[in-house]
Amino acid sequence: MHTDFSRYRVEPGTELSLADHDPRDTSAFAGDKDAAKKRCKKLNERLEELQEALYAEGRQRLLVVLQAMDAGGKDGVLRSVFDGVNPQGVRVACFKKPTPPELARDYLWRVHQHVPANGEIAIWNRSHYEDVLVVRVHGLCPEAHWRRRFDHIVNFERMLHDEGTTIVKLFLHIGKDEQRERLQERIDDPKKRWKWNSGDLDERARWNDYMAAFEEAIARTSTAEAPWYVVPGDRNWYRDLVASEILVAALEGLDIRLPAVDPAIQGLRLE
Ligand code: AMP
Ligand code: MG
Question: Which of 50, 97, 100, 231 is deepest in the core (most CB within 10 A)?
């Protein structure tokens, strides 16, 4: 049974208003957390199978881009959705503030090195999109420069697609109140304090600027080859479910074929 999660896909060429996307939405499962968790477990098993087949086939590759505000759930998705998936075929790349060598080059240089190889799934925790998000919000380069990046990004992703990489981009959409609660927990819960970063408050203060930046970046770069999904993020269980459904559907769409069996081993019995 597959639930249709295409409602969360941002159709190419359309405008995006995040205010119209409820971060608390749980509609596909009518708020039924237990049923959703069961479904999620099944999807997780399916993802494991599909990843192994992708690896065995060794011909195709999947790139997953994760973007969100701070505390938006990128780490949570990585942990839950990919739980149990063989780390051998999965590569995670986190993109932080660029280092001097990264800043000395074009902004796609550092991400390009982390594209998946044949048979691999690569997950980008933040990405080249930071170069049209944080860079825009903080005025780190002139508007004319970040604005022309939308076209670069569309072309870069089209090239990856044409050369055999399937791309899925997930924006984990949390509400501002939910972010307050999650950041507060990072202060109150000793186990979460390591995640606290006072810089997050500065970003939070620019919430509306970020929403505008996300809306434009997502709308301008959601293409048939590299679609964006706006995933409701306030309920972790629903977020994980939606992300899992989207990724399983993407892998199932690849028509993965296991390598042909060596005829010499047909019916072979080992002594
Ligand atoms: P975190 O993922 O919470 O550890 O934070 C990483 C930080 O690096 C975030 O504040 C990002 O906005 C920032 N960052 C990532 N990429 C860039 C970039 N290209 N330029 C400036 N800041 C960036
Ligand atoms: Mg952070």
Answer: 231
Instruction: Write the pLDDT tens digit of every residue in 142-165.
Output: 999 999 999 999 999 999 999 999
Give residue limits of the domains in the chain: 6-254
Q: What SS3 state is found at 114? A: coil
**101 CA distance to ligand 1 middle (Å):** 15
Within the chain, strands assigned E span: 61-68, 90-94, 121-125, 165-173, 228-232
Give, as one character, the DSSP assignment of residue 9: B
Distance 245 CA to ligand 2 centre (A): 26
96: CA distance to ligand 2 center in Å?
A: 9
Q: Going by CATH, does the domain composed of 6-254 fall within 3.40.50.2300?
A: no
- CA–CA gap between residue 7 and residue 1 (Å, rounded): 17
Task: Give ligand 1 pocket residues (Cβ under 6 A).
Answer: 70, 95-98, 126, 130-131, 134-135
Predicted confidence (pLDDT) per residue in 79-105, tens digit: 999 998 999 999 999 999 999 999 999
Q: Max Cα separation, the chain?
A: 71
With beta carbons less than 8 A apart as the criterion, state whether 225 and 155 touch.
no
- Tokens found for residue 205: 């203060």
**Which residues 6+ apart lie within 8 Å of 98 measured at CB?**
107, 110
Atom of ligand 1 minimally distant from the CA of 200: 10
